[in-house]
Design a protein that fits this description.
Layout (H helix, E strand, L loop, with lengths): L6 H7 L4 H24 L1 H14 L8 H17 L7 H27 L7 H24 L1 H4 L13 H18 L6 H15 L8 H17 L14 H5 L26
Helix pairs in contact: 3-10, 4-10, 5-6, 6-8, 8-9
């Protein structure tokens, strides 16, 4: 069962080319949704304007050539591939499981639909199962145990907000997909529910956090670039030796404070409700 293409029985019952057209429509929905999202929120405009302003600031130095390539490589490896922005190791692992599971899940779905719709005994269906299970493990772990409003604020894990649309539709898609595939594929209620959840996932990009995976790398790159050229997004840097850095502190007490001020709040995890 795990080595059999679960889409093959459904594609034999559906009109010819239906699944191919459906995947193409979902891809188009993602592109349109992301463009609408960044236009509505002004994300792209903000990043380009912020980058231009950063280069024009007094004291900013030009970052070019090999250094620029190095910054881009660090962004790709540390911030994108390794999710380096997460300081919490549990949150980071859950995110990596979900991210790589999702990529594997989507890629193998496309291969099974477009590449070899009736293949049996292939490694691709196995990878599809692995990807879906990785998403389920990372997603449910995050939803019930890691979310800040659950683990730190004591709210119920069943409390829903619009910001939860992405993770909930993703979990619904992979969960219903696993149930449908375990049942042998075909066209029935599990398949219809699976298609509905998947349509919400890819069709609701404008109203969910789906689009963040496309502009977060740009934000990470801009952040590293601003640190390299000396502007640091107008935030204090990790040294207070520079008089200009000392002046940025609004509290008089912190202007001459050392960088290492002891453990402080890091003595224990912030789990007070």
């Amino acid at each position: 069962m795990i080595g059999t293409n679960p889409f093959a029985p459904a594609m034999q019952s559906l009109p010819a080319g239906f699944m191919e057209w459906y995947l193409g429509l979902m891809a188009a929905a993602v592109i349109v949704g992301v463009l609408v999202d960044i236009t509505h929120k002004g994300s792209a405009k903000y990043f380009f304007a912020n980058m231009k302003e950063s280069r024009a600031k007094k004291g900013a130095r030009q970052v070019e050539g090999g250094e620029l390539v190095s910054i881009a490589a660090q962004t790709a490896v540390v911030d994108v591939l390794a999710s380096g922005e997460f300081c919490n190791p549990r949150r980071r692992i859950a995110h990596l499981l979900t991210m790589y599971g999702f990529l594997l899940y989507v890629a193998t779905t496309a291969i099974m639909v477009f590449g070899h719709p009736v293949a049996a005994g292939s490694i691709v269906p196995v990878l599809w199962w692995i990807g879906a299970l990785l998403v389920a493990v990372g997603g449910y772990w995050f939803w019930f145990f890691i979310r800040a409003d659950v683990s730190a604020e004591g709210n119920s894990p069943f409390r829903l907000m619009r910001a939860d649309l992405f993770v909930l539709s993703l979990l619904a898609s992979v969960t219903l997909g696993l149930i449908w595939a375990w049942d042998g594929g075909g066209v029935g209620w599990p398949f219809l529910l699976y298609m509905l959840a998947t349509t919400v996932l890819f069709g609701g990009v404008t109203w969910s956090k789906f689009a963040h995976m496309f502009f977060k790398p740009a934000a990470a790159f801009e952040k590293r670039l601003s640190r390299a050229n000396g502007t640091a997004e107008n935030l204090p840097t990790q040294t207070r030796d520079d008089p200009e850095q000392q002046k940025r502190h609004s509290m008089e007490l912190l202007k001459d404070a050392p960088m290492d001020m002891g453990l402080g709040i890091k003595r224990e995890a912030p789990r007070h409700y």
